[in-house]
Each structure stands twice: as structure tokens, then as C-alpha cells.
Amino acid sequence: MGTLWKAAGDFMLLILETLHNLTGSWGIAIILLTLAVRILLHPLTHKQMVSMQKMQKLQPRMKMLQEKYKDDKESLNREIMNLYKENKVNPAAGCLPLLVQLPILILLFRLLMNYNFGSIPFLGFISLEGSVLSTLAQAVALPETAKIGVMSVLSGVLANPSGLVHFTVYGGNFLLLIVVGFLTWAQQQMSSSGNPQMAMMSWFMPLFLTFICLSLPGGVLLYWGVSSFLGVAQQWWITKKTSEEMQEKPVLHKTKPTGKE
Predict the structure, then answer these.
(1) Beta-carbon contacts of residue 195 (< 8 Å; ≥ 6 apart)
(2) How many helices (H) and strands (E) in the chain?
(3) pLDDT tens, residue by residue, 1-22
(4) CB 21 within 8 A of CB 32
(5) What's the whole-model pTM score?
(6) Cα distances (Å, whole numbers) of residue 240 to 53, 234, 236
(7) To the nearest 5 percent, what fractions of the chain are helix, strand and coil?
């Protein structure tokens, strides 16, 4: 298993370095690799998103059935299965594709986390090596021996606020972080629309992930931003298509319960 895992990592590294040799830019190489991974995983992510979208559309009907058959579990389970069948929904389809694609995403994430991209910034202002915190520490002249963390960088900014004028040092990574946070929020909003139980999570998760991303290298943020943008576009298209299909084919609940009403 370890050998297979290493071979998969080496293959992904080979692709990244080949793309760099072809384009001459690590940033473009990361974008192209992200596109390749999204295309490879498209059948799985598409199936996962469609299933989740249909499950959300069926939530009002699910609640009606739960209320109607709250004292009859057997009839409730039967009617829910009929509802899934009529709408061609498989609840497991929302989880299994994620499990299958997870190893690929872990490999890509580890590669971007640990690879030495050098000191040349992408587009002239995004450090693929540095994080938002490390570039901020550089801008405010925090000692190289100082530990890079949220509190230490914040202390450095308060001690030397004039360092913030060096926006070109940290601005690219900072703006990229904002874009990643916004796209994550947008995707959460689209996937949780109409579900009040997920409303809080749709705000909490983007804030939490944005905080985590403070210390991630710009290469990872670039991958995350491109992948999130494609995810938002795919989510929008699937939401639109699913809404049209389920409006054109309204669910006709034909099966009548036996015994209890």
C-alpha cells in the first residue's frame, strides 16, 4: 500500500514538473494540474452534487412524510424509499464519490504543501512558497528566528504597522485568501439553500477554512481558489438543471398507506 501511495505521489509530481517545463510557470502548472484533477474527478463530483441537490429538493416532502407517519415507522420507511425511487435518488451517492476522490485530493494537497516552488512570485505578486502569515511577517520585518503564528504576526504588525505599506510583499497571498474564502462561502450558500439546519454551517465553514488557510502556502491557495471557482460554476449549473427537471416532473405520491392515516 505504501509503495502504491508513493508511486501515485511520484506520478502526480511528474505531471506537475512536466506542466512547468511546458509553460515555464509554476502558477500556470498548478492551475493546469487543478483543471486535470477536476476533469478526472468530474463524473464523481457531478454525481455527488446532483444527489445532494435532489436530497435538498425533497426535504419538504420528507418532512411531510415524517409528520404523516410519525407513529408508523414501517410505512414511513416505505414511503421514503418510494420517494427516492420516483426521483432516482440514491442517498449513498452523496458520500461514496467523496471517499473515492479523497486519496487523490490528499496526494495533490501534500505535493503542493511540500514542494519547493522557489522565490519567483506568480504574476509578480503571489508567493507560491509563502503563506499569508509568513509574507505579512516579512512585510513588518519580523525576525527570521521568530515563530510564525497568528499571535506573533499580529504582534509584529502592531509593533511595526508602517510595514503594511509593503503591500506587494503580502498583498497577493492576502487577496488570494479572500477569494478562496468568498468562493467557499458561495459554494456553501448554494449547496445549503433552503435548508435552515445548514445555514449556520454555511457561514462557519468558510470562516474556519479561511483561518486555516492563513498558514498554507500560496500554491495550495491557488489550487484551492481555482478548484473552488470550478466547483461554484458546477454547483450553479447542477442547481439550475435539477430545479428544472424536478419542476417538469413533479413527484406523484401514488402509494397509499395501509391501516393508519
Answers:
(1) 56, 59
(2) 10, 0
(3) 567 788 888 888 899 999 999 9
(4) no
(5) 0.78
(6) 10, 10, 6
(7) 75, 0, 25
